[in-house]
């Protein structure tokens, strides 16, 4: 069994860094996710008893005082930190500039979706999953799609 401080790579691409006891996460450790987020927690025999999740951009999730992207304030986190762009220049995602979506694909939040193959790949083009019918319909209905013709908003001089 694994014991002591170590690193453990999970098949999902996540990685645990911290103390292990009898092959389980045990103590103050961190789970690094392939999306760039992380979960720091106090683990007891493989179960997180207290913890904090941080998104890839540094925003920490707070269940009690969550003020990001709620029904009253729809700004992206980068807009909260840096302010709005000038009128006429849209910010479509939290990333600025946003990821360039491959032709005929959709940006579904954790990667790109190709509706022809029904496969979701991460932003480095590594396979994540096959989309079922429900996810397929949701992505087509709600996610940002690549355009055949790009238009750029350039501020007037």
Automatic annotation (TrEMBL):
It is found in: Cell projection, Cilium, Flagellum. InterPro entries: Morn5. The keyword Hydrolase does not apply. The keyword DNA-binding does not apply. It comes from the Eukaryota. Transmembrane segments: none annotated. GO terms for cellular component: motile cilium. Keywords: Cell projection, Cilium, Flagellum. Coiled coil: none annotated. Its main location: other. Signal peptide: none annotated. This is MORN5 protein. The gene is Morn5.
